[in-house]
């Protein structure tokens, strides 16, 4: 039985469209990017809710829109004066869709936590890259050590924010 020219053309067109659609579905994101910067440790409670403690340490999760293990996530902290806080500019490769960093405000004030992802492996141009931010506030605090002899006392390792 002979196949008509129209049926062959139609079949070829369907196959071409199917292959193109499959290629689009398998393609990853065009640009790797940071999608969020979140402090995952608890802040103060009550009247100081949402305020973090100066002298305490907090975990920061930077979320990315891909799992490209060859693209570093860059992180830095701007202090209350708007300048980069010494020893806070760092980078690491993500694990899955996130990278973890830490933040320890040294003094009360408003901070900016910034993150970006870059494929070239160089320190990013923070002015031109796509940068995500979190803007926490730090207040006066008391940090209870978790090392002996404090390790056995209630609230060992806790941070009490006193003044926003």
Automatic annotation (TrEMBL):
The residue range of the signal peptide is 1-32
> Keywords in UniProt for this one?
Signal
**Would I find Signal among this entry's keywords?**
yes
Identification of the protein by name: Secreted protein
According to its UniProt entry, this protein's organism is Gordonia mangrovi
């Amino acid at each position: 039985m002979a196949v008509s020219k129209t049926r062959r053309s139609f079949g070829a067109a369907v196959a071409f469209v199917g292959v193109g659609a499959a290629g689009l579905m398998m393609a990853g994101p065009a640009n790797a990017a940071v999608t969020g910067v979140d402090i995952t440790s608890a802040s103060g409670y009550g009247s100081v809710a949402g305020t973090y403690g100066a002298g305490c340490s907090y975990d920061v999760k930077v979320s990315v829109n891909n799992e490209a293990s060859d693209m570093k996530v860059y992180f830095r902290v701007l202090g209350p004066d708007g300048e980069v806080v010494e020893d806070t500019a760092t980078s690491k490769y993500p694990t899955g869709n996130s990278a973890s960093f830490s933040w320890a405000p040294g003094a009360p004030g408003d901070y900016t936590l910034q993150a970006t992802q870059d494929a070239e492996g160089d320190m990013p141009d923070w002015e031109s890259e796509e940068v995500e931010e979190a803007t926490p506030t730090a207040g006066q605090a008391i940090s209870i050590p978790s090392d002996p002899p404090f390790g056995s006392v209630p609230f060992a390792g806790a941070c009490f924010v006193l003044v926003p």
